[in-house]
Amino acid sequence: MNSPILRRTLTTAAAAGGTAVLILAGAGAASAHVGVTPDKTSANSYALLTFAIPHGCEESATTKVAITLPAELNDAQPTVNPNWTAEKVTEQLAEPKKLADGSSITKRTSQIVYTAKTPLAHDLRDTLVLSVKLPDAAGTTLNFPTLQTCEAGQTDWSEIAKDGQDPHSLKAPAPSITITDTAASDGHGTTAAAAAHTEEAASVTDSGADARSWAGLGAGVAGLVLGGLALLRSGARRKAADSTN
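RESULT FIELD:
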């Protein structure tokens, strides 16, 4: 067997394997964040907010998830999830709040608390969906601080990026969405700005996309290995032909 060819083949395979490990580490870090993906973000519209719940306490199972609503929201309707019970927590307002229809409220829903019927294992994920009425405030970012409680420990996803700060640099960022102008939305209420803002959340919640990415990576590494083996066989045949001549 041609030693230089073998060394080149092994070096290439090792490099590809190293790249795969680095990508795996990056994907694991991203998926560890609690994120939120809205089905629409246009001002003054009704939206479904899907919160992705991955592991947040090392290897400890999740027992409770408390989602705090921003002051701009008055209420939220939790979608039934058979794995959890949901409870609304209300707060008394300092003064009555006037609504767009002319009525006023003295209380608002400040938090939705989900309790797992069976603790969510650290190697599994789930999604929790809230229905909300978005305020007529295009350009406003709504933050949803989320406390993830586990059998051992808890993680408080409540860090909010300051002006000019990259949210990806935060250790435990709060899930957030940005309200967009209705005129800038398409028929489904989705905008390019909303898609960009929820890029990290999408990377957490779209397990199908993750699977497709890993399948592509695996195919690429396999192709490198097969190419190296073909190169080795070709070299061996040439060497045998030279010896015969």
